[in-house]
Design goal:
Order of helices and strands: HEEEHEHEEEHEHEHEEHH
Helix content: 25-40%
Shape: globular
Strand content: 15-25%
Mean pLDDT: 88
């Protein structure tokens, strides 16, 4: 009988240990899922935001936002949006913020901003065998851009003295269309964030050449509605600064881009 009691005691201890461990994990999961949710709107823009092989949002902005909001006590739900309707969506409260390699330049009065958290070069790309070498060579050429982006604004405004009169400026909602059009020779050039062009060239084995002179070097940030008074923009700016200081931001960006430090040199930028 004594031996049986010992065995029973060991079995009971094992069951209790497993049960307690299960309860502990459940509590952690419950705590995580009970955090308030921040709905982040973005479009498909590798390497900042895209769906992985399992259909799960990933990328630089997804990882940065997930870590930053976690430190702030939130969980993040990344949703794909129509980029042309981003302002309408954030102002209506359907999404809490916009984050998708979003340039702050010229938009400071349109949103409450967290950032800049990274720098970005807006550039022009042509086919490798093109005779276009400089911005001045774009005279009379056909340019394609994504609608509601800084390149579209720059080319349609016609106020940059470096840019000559183009033959035509075409806009598309789908950024991948502009690259396909250039690849097939239907347009002479495209303009976008340099990192996005490089990602497309890598993914699709496209033989593009990026002009040395950038259209714009700017900071990218996270946009909240002007009527959003929760203070999330200020808190997120401070959290990004902490992530830059402790090396987290460099580690995340480095998983997607070589030489991550050059994309984190934001101190010299005008917000």
């Amino acid at each position: 009988m004594k031996g049986k009691r010992v065995i029973a005691g060991i079995l009971l201890a094992g069951i209790l240990a497993v049960t307690l461990a299960g309860c502990k994990n459940t509590d952690n999961t419950k705590e995580e899922t009970e955090k308030p949710v921040i709905t982040l709107g973005s479009d498909n823009y590798p390497p900042y935001n895209y769906l992985n092989e399992d259909g799960v949002p990933t990328g630089i902005d997804v990882e940065l936002a997930t870590e930053a909001f976690k430190r702030m006590g939130y969980q993040v739900d990344v949703v794909q949006i129509n980029w042309e309707k981003k302002k309408e969506l954030v102002e209506s409260g359907e999404i809490d913020c916009i984050m998708g390699c979003f340039s702050m330049e010229g938009r400071l009065d349109d949103y409450r901003w967290a950032g800049p958290y990274m720098t970005s070069r807006q550039v022009v790309a042509v086919n490798a065998d093109s005779g276009i070498e400089t911005l001045a060579d774009l005279a009379g050429k056909t340019m394609m851009v994504q609608s509601t982006t800084k390149p579209e604004e720059i080319f349609l405004a016609g106020t940059d003295p470096r840019i000559p009169q183009l033959g035509e400026v075409l806009s598309t909602e789908d950024r991948s269309v502009q690259y396909a059009m250039l690849n097939c020779g239907y347009v002479d050039a495209v303009a976008a964030h340099e990192t996005a062009i490089l990602q497309y060239m890598q993914d699709c084995n496209a033989n593009f050449r990026i002009l040395e002179e950038p259209l714009l070097v700017t900071g990218i940030g996270v946009a909240f509605a002007l009527n959003d008074t929760r203070g999330l923009d200020e808190q997120l700016t401070k959290t990004f600064a902490a992530m830059r200081a402790d090396g987290t931001m460099k580690q995340i960006v480095g998983r997607y881009l070589p030489d991550p430090e050059k994309y984190l040199e934001v101190d010299a930028l005008e917000p």
